[in-house]
Write a structure and sequence with these properties.
The protein is mainly alpha-helical. The chain has a two-stranded antiparallel ribbon with strand order 1-2. Strand 1 and strand 2 form a beta hairpin. The longest helix has 12 residues. It is globular.
Length: 63
């Protein structure tokens, strides 16, 4: 997870979602039944990485 967090920190600011958006997305993921150990069991993504990128969307339209 430390590597993932370093990668997210290093994302270009033009690609990165605003902090408030990122945190809101993570809240939605944490409340979702598909989340298990940081991974979305529905699509297989690392939710922290998906949430960090501005253009990304939840495949189930939760954010």
């Amino acid at each position: 997870m430390a590597k993932l967090h370093r990668y997210i920190e290093g994302l270009d600011k033009d690609l990165k979602a605003a902090r408030e958006i990122y945190e809101g997305r993570l809240r939605a993921c944490k409340a979702c039944d598909y989340l298990e150990a940081g991974t979305c069991q529905a699509c297989g993504c690392y939710v922290e990485l998906r949430a960090a990128v501005k253009k990304n969307r939840c495949p189930y339209k939760k954010w």
